[in-house]
Amino acid sequence: MKKFALLLVLTFSLSIVSQAQNNKDKKEKGKHEKKEQLKEKKKEKEQKGKAYGKDKELEGKDFGQKRAEETRMKREEHRKKLDESVTEGRMKAEEAKEKIKAAKEKAEKEKQEGKISDEEYQAKKEKIEKAEKQTEELERKLEEAKKQEEKVREMEEKMKEKEMEMKEKSKELEEIEK
């Protein structure tokens, strides 16, 4: 019986020790996984952003020229999209004006012919006025966009002039250095 009790105690002790060892292994594994996750997050942070200068194929002036060309192309795409959206907005505003005019005429005609009551006429008139206000707001935004576009074009012209001046000065410096 003593042997049986001793065997039972030993078995119980071994199971506790093995559980403790498993828990310890799990904690170490968890710590290791956390370290790996932190390393991955750190790498992701490093990879975020534009990082134009990393892993570049070109060096120096050629790299700068390529980046400038990419920027010009991107700006041109943006300008085209803006022009398209302004043109589309103007078309929508014109269509809305025509529809509003037709709705006004129809409402007036129906009221004169007695097809609608004064209340229905007032309700239609309110809807028409609401649509007119929205159209006016759209036109105001289009004017703002047009002004913005003009400012951008002026700034680009100034930048081109400065760029030309810089190129001329650069050529002068190169000639002086020779």
Radius of gyration: 38 Å
Report the total helices: 3
The coarse silhouette is: flat
Please identify the structural class as seen in this structure.
mainly alpha
Q: Helix proportion of residues, in percent?
A: over 70%
Order of helices and strands: HHH
Quick one: biggest sheet? Answer: none
Strand content: under 5%
Distance between the termini: 107 Å
> Using DSSP, what is the number of strands?
0
Low-confidence stretches: none
Report mean pLDDT, rounded to a whole number.
80
Q: Mind explaining what this structure looks like?
A:
The protein is mostly helical and 178 residues long. It has a domain at 80-157. 90% of the residues lie in helices and 0% in strands. It has 3 helices and no strands. It has helices spanning 2-47, 60-113, 118-177. α2 (60-113) runs antiparallel to α3. It is flat, with a radius of gyration of 38 Å. The chain starts with a helix and ends with a helix. The mean pLDDT is 80.
Q: Could you give the topology of this structure?
A:
Elements lengths: L1 H46 L12 H54 L4 H60 L1
Keywords: Signal
Protein name: Caldesmon
Organism: Carboxylicivirga linearis
What descriptors fit this protein?
single chain; 178 residues; mainly alpha; 3 helices; flat
Short account of what is shown:
This is Caldesmon. Residues 19-118, 133-178 are annotated as: Disordered. This protein is an all-alpha fold and 178 residues long.
